[in-house]
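Our preliminary data section would be incomplete without showing what the modeling component actually yields. Below, a chain of 106 amino acids is followed by its predicted structure, encoded as tokens that our downstream tools consume directly.
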Amino acid sequence: MAEAEASARAGADTDECLHCAIMDMVEERIAGGSADAANLVVLIAESLVDVILLVPQAEQAQLMAHTLSALGDLLLQKSSPDGSGSGSQPIRRCGRPRSTLAVRLM
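Predicted structure:
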């Protein structure tokens, strides 16, 4: 039983750090000078599409709608001074500070 709980916790930790892993890769590209914002967003969007296509076809539209809703709400939360946004999609805070790197839209 304890082994199953440890495995479940490890899976949850991995899920929560996925954001950090993605941002580490993005920041490496930005720091290397080989990135533009539009291309990075397209690559990340393609990954989202690949995840959506993993679910049964009958559920894909619902997952896409959820994804777009979360995208808008997370943008509002992270860009508002108090971090409130609409509050419909709570942010799972991993403790990672917001990046100070800047990338241009080319």
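DSSP finds three helices and no strands in the chain. The CA atoms of residues 4 and 78 lie 35 Å apart. Preliminary results of this kind motivate Aim 1 of the renewal.
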